[in-house]
UniProtKB/TrEMBL annotation:
GO CC entries: membrane
Gene3D superfamilies: MFS general substrate transporter like domains, Multidrug resistance protein D
A GO MF label: transmembrane transporter activity
Protein name listed in UniProt: MFS transporter
PANTHER family in the record: MAJOR FACILITATOR SUPERFAMILY MULTIDRUG TRANSPORTER MFSC
InterPro entries linked: MFS (IPR011701), MFS_dom (IPR020846), MFS_trans_sf (IPR036259)
Localization per Swiss-Prot or TrEMBL: Membrane
Membrane topology type: Multi-pass membrane protein
Length: 481
């Protein structure tokens, strides 16, 4: 870990001590946003009883947060060029923290939903530009390691959320789940304001029409996916899909002629970026699908209790936490596509082993299969994210970061919707796991397709590093002077 904060001659990014504080600000902001969803899920039954609403309505405490967050990821990524990434990140943490206080003090379901929507806005602001800020504070030679750290933080947040929620609810009421964000938010605000790189905003040229179309496109898509997951009438699903597709067509047309496009389409002219986006989206479809399908498999098919099911899930994020930083460091030295493709191969094997799991299998049988999936995903994600960020010009890193976050969110939500659709028509839950494995196969195809391109980029990076490195004679001369 200490190598992340060393400084060498010719390094871009922040010096080591400043880098450490900036990373802590990013880690705290990301943890608050990621932990929130899984932590609050545990409290939904308590919220329903306390505020006298049905369980189906209480689900919107989580759904609204996720929909608003997903809908504004691209908007905030583009807005960061206007006001600077530092200001936007600070504003996002501030809005999230204040809205968490509002959620904690809410005495009605309607006011809680308003503050949850505001929390979603704050989370979108921080998550949309997090990878871009990592790129600006770390030297290029450590970009993979930095994104490995980011993957570890996200996985740790998902793993810790249910445990934190359960622990707090055992000694306090549900408002304290939101109040927990207050001290963390204050520390993150202070660190972000002091340590994140200062940069000038553009102060003109924001694509407001594109932003509106982006919000409509993503919000209607998520409403349609949510309708599938809750087995809503077919016309609701169809209406959401039609609105989303129409907005998507208009959005692309707008981006082609806008002076300051919300999402520069030139990003997708780089094959490494486009293939990394495809690989990421397909892999996250598999992960989102698995997290829901395994709940049904372990409890309904295999008869495990909810507590046992929670333990069976744990190896997945824990494996990502352990392997992610290692995969990121390897991606700085080796061909990232080779590492990512190896991870996808292991993920495919993990899905196949879970789909073949017998109903009378024991806990250990489930644990090693889930761990295999986590190992594969941990090897895949940081190198693939490195490809997404490193293959784009620095000026477009915020847009690439927003696209990365949007791809992750849409992929996971689509996987969840697939499980709902399969269960709605009476298909066995194992069938969804085979679909997850098929998504990983397609992701592997995309990853392998960019392998020669990633290898060539790695060779250029090594050559540039050799040219930038000081020679022994020049180092001695510098010391004599």
């Amino acid at each position: 870990m200490s190598r992340l904060f060393d400084t060498r001659p010719g390094d871009d990014g922040l010096p080591g001590p400043e880098r450490r504080q900036a990373v802590l600000a990013l880690v705290l902001g990301t943890l608050m946003a990621v932990v929130d969803t899984t932590m609050v899920n545990i409290a939904l039954p308590s919220i329903a009883v306390s505020l006298d609403v049905s369980a189906s309505r209480a689900v919107w405490v989580t759904n609204l947060f996720q929909i608003v967050c997903a809908a504004f990821l691209l908007v905030f990524a583009a807005l960061s060029a206007l006001v600077s990434r530092r200001r936007l990140y600070v504003a996002g943490v501030g809005v999230f923290t204040l809205a968490a206080l509002g959620s904690a003090l809410s005495t009605s379901f309607e006011s809680l939903l308003v503050f949850r929507a505001l929390q979603g806005l704050g989370a979108a602001a921080t998550l949309s530009i997090g990878p871009a800020i990592y790129r600006s504070i770390f030297p290029s030679r450590l970009l993979g390691s930095a994104l490995g750290l980011s993957a570890m933080v996200v996985a740790g947040g998902y793993a810790a959320g249910p445990a934190i929620g359960g622990l707090l609810l055992s000694v306090a009421e549900w408002p304290w789940l939101f109040a927990l964000h207050l001290p963390l938010g204050c520390v993150a605000l202070s660190l972000a304001w002091r340590a994140l790189p200062r940069e000038k905003g553009r102060w003109h040229g924001f694509d407001g029409v594109g932003a509106l179309l982006s919000v409509v496109m993503l919000a209607s898509l998520f409403l349609a996916l949510d309708a599938i997951g809750h087995r809503a009438p077919a016309w609701q699903v169809a209406a959401g899909v039609v609105i989303s597709v129409t907005a998507a067509v208009l959005f692309v047309q707008r981006q082609r002629r806008a002076s300051f496009p919300l999402l520069p389409l030139s990003l997708f002219q780089e094959p490494r970026f486009s293939l990394a986006v495809c690989a990421s989206g397909l892999a996250f479809i598999g992960q989102g699908l698995a997290f829901v399908a395994l709940s049904f498999l372990y409890q309904q098919e295999m008869g495990f209790t909810p507590l046992q099911t929670a333990w069976l899930f744990t190896p997945w994020p824990l494996a990502i936490m352990l392997v992610g930083p290692v995969a990121g460091r390897l991606a700085d030295k080796l061909n990232p596509s080779v590492i990512a493709s190896t991870g996808l191969l292991l993920l495919m094997m993990g899905f196949a082993s879970l789909a073949l799991l017998e109903a009378d299998a024991g806990v250990l049988d489930g644990l090693w299969r889930t761990a295999l999936c986590g190992l594969g995903f941990g090897l895949f994600q940081p190198p693939n994210n490195r490809e997404m960020m490193a293959s784009t010009p620095a000026a477009l890193s915020a847009s690439a970061s927003g696209m990365m976050s949007t791809t992750r969110t849409v992929g996971q939500s689509f996987g969840v919707a697939l499980v709902g659709a399969f269960l709605a028509v009476g298909l066995p839950v194992q069938a969804t796991l085979w679909v997850g494995g098929a998504a990983c196969v397609l992701s592997l195809v995309a990853s392998l397709a960019r392998m020669p391109l990633a290898g060539a980029a790695q060779a250029r990076r090594r050559a540039a590093n050799r040219e930038a490195a000081p020679t022994p004679s020049s180092s001695r001369t510098g010391r004599l002077k």
